[in-house]
Design goal:
Blueprint: H1 16-26, H2 31-43, H3 49-65, H4 69-79, H5 90-94, H6 98-103, H7 113-129, H8 144-157, H9 160-184
Helix pairs in contact: 1-2, 2-4, 3-9, 7-8
Length: 186
């Protein structure tokens, strides 16, 4: 069954499990995101899914600016919830949402084992350079070569604070795209 989104006006009155399912659909399943957003979802109404997503992005950005180990752990849990780009192992696919599988379909097309291995190596290098983070980008139909060039640029830049900003922005861009597509399909 394809994911769906309820009317935005109903979110505040939904059971918490349903609220978390909305977050999981827009972003990726993350207990840390649930913890971060539970008080907001139960006490605030939103005029649109974009405004909800902006609220999530604002909360993540605030965590990024904080210096406590707990805030860092929560943020890294959220940012690390996205699947690695180009991962196609059965275990990786099992933990990937249906929407992520569709979004990454172009990256996972067989372009030779060399390309797939290069992407795996870049993922490892990225995660070693930026502990606690995972490379996240709004793929939006871009090919593996363009994505790998961007990964290389970001690894070489070496700025972890900028990585957090770009990852948060990418997660919000992906969530907004998902919301638009899911609302059109209703």
């Amino acid at each position: 069954m394809s994911p769906t989104l309820p009317p935005i006006s109903s979110i505040q009155s939904l059971p918490q499990e349903s609220q978390f399912h909305i977050l999981d659909t827009l972003f990726e399943p993350s207990p840390q995101l649930h913890t971060l957003m539970a008080p907001v979802l139960s006490h605030q109404s939103f005029s649109s899914y974009d405004s909800l997503i902006d609220a999530v992005g604002g909360r993540m950005t605030a965590l990024s600016a904080a210096n406590s180990p707990q805030d860092k752990e929560i943020l890294e849990g959220i940012l690390g919830s996205h699947p690695r780009l180009g991962e196609s192992s059965p275990a990786a696919k099992e933990h990937m949402s249906e929407l992520s599988r569709k979004e990454q379909a172009n990256l996972n097309k067989s372009e030779g084992e060399g390309e797939a291995e290069k992407l795996r190596m870049l993922n490892r290098e990225y995660e070693e350079k930026f502990p606690g983070l995972r490379y996240v980008v709004f793929v939006n139909g871009r090919g593996r070569d363009v994505i790998m060039e961007d990964m290389r640029r970001r690894i070489d830049r070496g700025d972890i604070e900028r990585e957090k900003e770009e990852t948060i922005q990418a997660m919000c861009d992906i969530a907004k795209d998902r919301a638009r597509k899911l609302q059109k399909s209703e």
